[in-house]
Amino acid sequence: MTMRTDDVPDDVKPSDLMVLKTGIEGADIVFALHQACFPPGSGERWSHTDLCEVLRMPGTLALIASRDDQPLGYGLARFAADECELLSLAVADPQRRSGVPMLWWGI
């Protein structure tokens, strides 16, 4: 299903959202969000060690979206030459379908 910008609830504003660009120093926050978003046994859950290895790779960064100092979700990407690979994207359950990724990427 595709979400258009007119599907974002009226009370969700880009100005409400803080976005932190981080690397390995944000691993614990990204890991906590990752564990909350991917259920055990889903086959999509990474270990803390795996996540840290990815964050240490050259060209890798994470974006953590938060509101009122509460982390809402993250995007994890790797850049090489003129390409970007989205490795993982997750939004905490209470914030899903609220347009968080669209707001933090300005779509």
UniProtKB/TrEMBL annotation:
Domain of life: Bacteria
InterPro entries assigned to the protein according to its UniProt record, in alphabetical order: Acyl_CoA_acyltransferase
Name recorded for this polypeptide: N-acetyltransferase domain-containing protein
